[in-house]
Design a protein that fits this description.
The structure is a homodimer of 341-residue chains. With 341 residues, the first copy, chain A, is of the alpha+beta class. In chain A, the strands form 2 sheets. A 7-stranded mixed sheet of chain A has the order 8-10-7-11-9-12-13, sandwiched between helices. In chain A, strands 1-2-3-6-4-5 form a 6-stranded mixed sheet, covered by helices on one side. In chain A, strand 2 and strand 3 form a beta hairpin. Chain A is globular. At the A-B interface, helix 1, helix 2, strand 2, strand 3 and strand 4 of A face helix 1, helix 2, strand 2, strand 3 and strand 4 of B.
Chain lengths: 341, 341
Amino acid sequence: MAAKGTDIADFGAVKLLDRISTAFPISQPSTVSGIGNDAAVINNSGKQTVAAAQLMLEGIHFDLTYTPLKHLGYKAVIAVINKIYAMNAAPVQLLLSLGVSQRFTVEDIDEITEGIAAACKRYQLDLAGVDISSSFTGLTVGITAVGAAEADQIVTRSGGKPTDLLCLSGNLGAAYMGLQLLRREKTVFEANNNAQPQLEGYNYILQRYLKPEAQQETFNLLTNNNIVPTAMISAVNGLASDTLQICKASNCGVRIYLERLPIASETFRMAEEMNFDAVTAALNGGDDYELLFTVPLGMHEIIQKELQGVDIIGHLCDAAEGNYLITPDNQAVELKAQGWE
Amino acid sequence: MAAKGTDIADFGAVKLLDRISTAFPISQPSTVSGIGNDAAVINNSGKQTVAAAQLMLEGIHFDLTYTPLKHLGYKAVIAVINKIYAMNAAPVQLLLSLGVSQRFTVEDIDEITEGIAAACKRYQLDLAGVDISSSFTGLTVGITAVGAAEADQIVTRSGGKPTDLLCLSGNLGAAYMGLQLLRREKTVFEANNNAQPQLEGYNYILQRYLKPEAQQETFNLLTNNNIVPTAMISAVNGLASDTLQICKASNCGVRIYLERLPIASETFRMAEEMNFDAVTAALNGGDDYELLFTVPLGMHEIIQKELQGVDIIGHLCDAAEGNYLITPDNQAVELKAQGWE
């Protein structure tokens, strides 16, 4: 390692990704789409093959004091297959790499695989490869998902055009508020081992954090209605960051209307209880596993009529017009992505 | 985690993999081959897509006190693409997942990606996806490789038949002795910070550990000579373990002839210097990144004549005859795999 160097947190994760990307020009004919989307697209002369990878690291992506191993296995699958759905492709195969330290037992691994198996059953997936190594430093779960789609169905982040509608499945900030609740109860428990966790009435936000689902339903609705979005992304880093990724890749600006942001009532209630701004949770919380996509303006009606659970939250515009959140009293707040987590 | 449970080291990594596999029956028509081979095989109506994943964990797969980050990046690619070659397929795309802790700088990441870029150039690969997360616990490198092959070219571990010849590219134990040398010099250095590492004369074994190459050449030789092995595996866990994997998957026994084991002179020399048995390094050392494969007996001549660098080291037999290493004085030593590392 360099004795001195540039701090990654200061530099920013997005800039770091750009920096890496420039070192890797695409050169192979079968690589249809590479870095900069949720998944790679590969053409082996049949359907397009779509592949994405995801690491889940202990202490970063999960805390085992409140994440059961079974849920961890399930969630790791959700995280990676939602990237395949975000390419408008169906995930089919998974590869699993586990790094486990000595404090884990065979039964622990059983629990993780139970969660993965439950996700495989729910989403019709085959686990097609497993690799286990020992680890000095806690639990590492690496999952790769491989999917397929016809070439003309693939959606990247870069096809958005000014006036396109910005659409979002489900709602935002729920998983983030669920996590805040779990953290609060952990702190209470650490201070007093006899304390019982106060989790009642918050099933929905806890479930959104602990056992999220992927957007197979939205993918199916799009397919069944012959809608191919112009751009799409797996919404996991908070609406601000995810929207800006589409804007950047599509060379567009954006307007999001604050009053249209879908936020569940439990999310609002928890935020209020914690003196936290629910809109901030929606914009920057992350872990939503929704689909954020754009469609041509003319699809306004079909989206509203046929895509249950999908909201139109704004629209793209010229890049020169910038990226703004519009409040109900018509103030424009610039959208900014959070840095390195 | 379970309060009490079965220790993974006692249980054994191979048994653990079997246990996991039984929880995941293959159900999707496009999954041609799943768990139990070096890579998954997927049929999306064109060429077969072959995918494999690999985790590299700090402290387990590498020690940064003697592994330069550039070499680490290079080696991570070698480890995963050799799995694709082991399916008799050509690797083409890579997906990279990095987990980096705060002690790493942007320049450190540059070094890792330089190594990956060098491997991409050397092996004509596209990096088609990158994902970076922060980490509390050192450096984690996850790489997925995707390749392609015609359906009738794919080789798994399970096609070996009694009398098939057991063939091996390159030589064994070199990387393991290189690692022992690095460890020795690290210990000396820790005892005396002014000590200069004594690495002269051991370039070959050091290179085999620090900057191994994948078996593109052997893959090309097989292809150019129209040889499709009956079974093949990426030789990384030591000859004993790797051979037993083929035997188990092919339901065969094996005879390996000790005097035919290819071991480089530097490997022998280092082993002697350290009072270590070079054959043990070959059988159990691992990290070789060679190809171990079987071909029908009738291919004896073409292998010897056309496959430069490949040795015939034994043959398969009936499973009932067991798995043995035959010494020059005709003693039969049972082949046993090492447990959890």
